[in-house]
Amino acid sequence: MTKFRGTVKWFDPTKGFGFITSVQKVEDESKCIKIHDVEQKDSDKDAVDKWMKNAEGEKDLVTKDIFCHHTSIIRESSFSEADSHQRNSFHSNENDQRNYVVKKLKQGDKVEFVICWSNKTVDNQKQPQAIDVIALTQEEISETE
Known about the structure:
globular; 6 strands
């Protein structure tokens, strides 16, 4: 199983997407986070290869960002009550009209994910993106370092 970890560079809940940076492969599979009742997926090798080649020769994954859509988030960030109230009051009306809740990440969150092809295309080309994104808790970060 090939999983990755990184840091949320930015995430805009009104747009429903953001980017993850400082990406590194999880070398020890036993350190991967397992969520009860969630099927563990593996990264798509072709998607990982394309994502790495898009760096125009850069070999250092830490400098590469990867796209993250809100529908690919399994476990979102935990927000403080003040953050939650402010975000909910601003976005709840719009999200109620859409009839769904946008899962959110915060800048600086540590996350774990796999890399697969997006369902949507850009210029008729599928793009690699982070899926099955899990916002890590402080305890999980400490245990896996």
